[in-house]
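User: I'm preparing a small set of examples for a lab meeting where we compare how different chains pack in three dimensions. I only have the primary sequence for this one, and I'd like the structure in token form so I can line it up with the others. Please keep the answer compact; I'll paste it straight into my notes.
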Amino acid sequence: MRNYEVTFIVDPVLSGDEIKAAAQSYVDLLKKEGCEIVHVDEMGLRQLAYPINRRTSGVYYCIEFQIETGELISKYELSMRRDERIMRFLTVKLDKYGVKYNDDKRKGLIGKKKKSGDQKDKKGSGKAATATKAAPKTKTAAPKTTPPAPKAAAQEEE
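Assistant: Understood. Below is the structure token output for the 158-residue chain.
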């Protein structure tokens, strides 16, 4: 079985139901073609690095799936290119390390650790912040010295 991951950005001006329907249509297309869906990740609304079609944000989705052959990929990407709801997409073939990474990430072994019941640290609190307040660092300027002027060659010969 070959493992693939497709990440795509849906246009954020659509309604919430239309956005979910767009993503679900691609999941259904994969299932119809005989793919095994490993995981569907809705990453949510995020800012784009640069404007695409005059949009500065988009709704990100990531679908990880398995298939016997890669013949479906060209058909799948063609349908995404034709769909006006999809702003960008990227399909990646995963090797064994990519599959393990995604599995570990889903289990919570990789990424941000969620604190259970603790307050979130605010900026400037904690031991590190008090240590910097207790011992402020000051810069002292080193005295500037000028090297002695070289003696003229004519004076040395005399």
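A couple of notes for your slides: Strands lie at 2-10, 36-52, 55-67, 86-94. The chain is about 35% helix and 30% strand.

User: Perfect, thanks.
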